[in-house]
Each structure stands twice: as C-alpha cells, then as structure tokens.
Design goal:
homotetramer; about 120 residues; mainly alpha; about 0% strand; globular
Chain lengths: ~120, ~120, ~120, ~120
C-alpha cells in the first residue's frame, strides 16, 4: 500500500486522494464548494493550535511532541483538501504558485516595498 | 528569473518563497502564528468565491475566465502560506500528507465507512 | 448565578464574559489579535457542521437534536468571542451593525441591485 | 430610515436585516449553509486586519482611524451574518450564549482551571 519508497510527488498524492475518496463513495460530497469549505475549516484547525500562544511559544511549537503531531496532522489535512479541490476544478497548484511568485516579483520590487503590516 | 523550464517542485517553490520574503525584509513578519493566520485568511478568500453559488454554479466556476483567474490566484496564496508555514516550523508537507493517507486507510476501511455527512 | 430572569442584553453578556475571564486569569490571553483568531476558529467550527450537507440537509439541521445542540453551542462561541473582542477594542457591536445597515441601504438600492452571486 | 433614536436591540436588527435581504431578492442566497460560509469569510476579514501586527500594534489598532473603521465594518459584517444565520435556523443567539456561559461556569471552576494555552 505504501508508496514511500518512491520520492513523493504532488500529482501522485492527488491520485491517491482521489482513489481513496472513490473507494469510499465519497465522490458526491467532494464538490468544489464543499472541498473549499473543508479546506477553510482545516486551516482554522491549524490556527486553533496557535490561538492562545505567545509568539515565543508558537515558535517552539514543534518541540512539544503532542503539539508537533497535531501540527503535522493539520498540515496534512489542509494540503489534502487543497489538492482535492485542485483535482475537482482542474487547477495545477504548483503552476499557479509559480505564476503568482512571478507576478509578485513585479508587484513588490525589492527595495521599494513597504513593511508587510503596511501592505 | 523564471524556473519554468525545469519541472516544478515543492522544495524549490519553498526556497523561492523564502528568498522572496528575505529580499523584502518580511522575515520578521513570517512567524508561525502569523503565517497560519494568513493561511486561514487566504483559504477564506477562496471560499468567498463560492459562498453564494449553487452547487451547479460552483461546479462550472472555471468556465468563467475572471472567476477562474481568482480561483488560481487564491489557490496560489493558500499554497504559498502553507509552504512558508512548513518552512518556518520544519514540517515536510508531502511526507505529512502521505503519512496521513496511510493512517486514514486504516481508520476508514473500504466497505465499512459511513457516508461523509455522518463521519 | 443565573441572570435568566431578566431579559438578556448584549452589554450584560459582555460584562459576564469579562468577569468569567478575569476570575480564571484568562485576561492576558484575551488580546485583540488572539480573540479575533479564536472568533475565526469558532466560525469555522460552525461551518464544519454544514460542510458535507446538501442544501436540503442543511436547511433541516435543527430537526436533528444532536446537530441542533452543536449549532447552538457554536453560535454561542462565535458570539462570545465577537463580544469579547468588542470589549477589548472598545467597539459597540450593535451600533456598528446599525451604521452598516444604513450604509448598505445607500450602497445597494432596492430595485437596482444585482443578484448576490454577482455582487 | 434610521431607528437610532430607540435603543438598539438584537431582535430589531435581525428584523431589519431580514427586510433588507427580502427587498433585494437575496432570500434564496441566504440558506443556512451559505450564511455560515459568509460568516466564516467575514471573521477571516477581521483577522486579516491583525495578521501581520505585533501584539502591541494590535492592541493600538483603534487609534488609527482607517484601521478603526475597518474593524467596525468587519465587526458589523460578522454580526450581520451571525444574526441572519440565527434567523434562518431559528436559534436565539443571546439565549444560546447565556446557556453556554452557565455550562462553562461548571466546566471551568474558578481556582481549578488551567491557563488557557493548556485548555
């Protein structure tokens, strides 16, 4: 069942997520609107881990095993729903990000960009 | 500036995002707590595109060029903050997802898993 | 302890929430930034109840006692953090909403306002 | 048009929001599932104001007029969607919050409750 021997790859993970959902008859639930709601819910579950922490506690979050595991688990959930949404609507997430980085390099020129709290 | 000739790769995108932030002195803003708040905000911006759409309109979202561009742009933002968060806390997002899929294969056995609205 | 005999009032609930937090030494956690993160997390927990439901199932959510209780519980949490945030920053939530409704009456004139999925 | 002369009241604001939506034919969009998605989106827009601020900057947010206005505007939007959701599903938000405070007084006894980052 494990594909761990091969290097991990986004397209391969997308295929495994799709097979997983199809095998459990979850396809009808995985509409674009539902998947993006689920993505947003999982991003908030990741935020929940940090909501009462000071910046210092937050920076040390991975040193506490139980919290570290929750962080990895929620990262996985966010990525899972993001990839399933991309599969559902036919967006290539890596190409979308590469294109955005190039647009941002023009939009925020080095040396002429304000601090981030003023953007 | 473009790395488009080589196949896109998550680790490479993470390096470009880090270089981008460092070049603009945005590093101090990119704490784990701030990045996870930003991730959650971007996931909601993706949800906002869909909030008033019927399931049918949502399924056709990529056929309308302006909405399709917004979807790609927000997917890029969600992935950007997820990867920057992973860089900040030292989590490998693809490994976290692969591990989660394997746990879920045990947790939700094929043929013995309820419909998703009852999970 | 109960104030149920008197009609409920937003200012009174704000005072009870403040007393509650002070009595448990939670004041230092209740910064504006933390409270607004918590508000966002609780709004997502309310969304989570609905994420896989069809529009029809969602419309009937209060007919199922267990889901109805979760809905009431999450409504309470959203309102609690919204009111605590308003206390922390000194915003009057009812006045803010009344002012917004009046601005929106000008912004979206009756008879000349597009359907909401086009706004 | 203004009801400002009378003291503001949650039930009255709910009625005005309902009239506002009905007058613009927005009723069909205001399903429980859509309203809760919109609530979550607006809570994130409030969070967005704070995402890059230090705790100190966040505490001073109302001293800057432009940011103060955005905060009031987003508080109004969050409350508007919360109240419209409550109207749609038939939940009394003040009663739900009062009941939750009483449950929390039993769940988190004074003097025996851990710090909030450990709850």
């Amino acid at each position: 069942m494990s594909d761990q021997e091969r290097p991990l790859d986004v397209a391969e993970l997308q295929r495994r997520l799709l097979d997983f959902a199809v095998a459990r008859d979850w396809g009808p639930y995985h509409t674009p609107k539902n998947l993006v709601a689920a993505l947003s819910v999982e991003a908030s579950e990741l935020l929940e881990i940090f909501q009462w922490l000071t910046p210092e506690q937050a920076a040390a979050v991975m040193r506490e095993p139980e919290r570290a595991h929750r962080v990895e688990d929620e990262v996985a959930d966010v990525l899972a729903y993001l990839l399933q949404f991309c599969t559902a609507v036919g967006v290539d997430p890596l190409a979308a990000l590469a294109a955005k980085i190039e647009r941002n390099e023009l939009r925020f020129p080095v040396g002429r960009t304000p601090p981030l709290d003023g953007v």
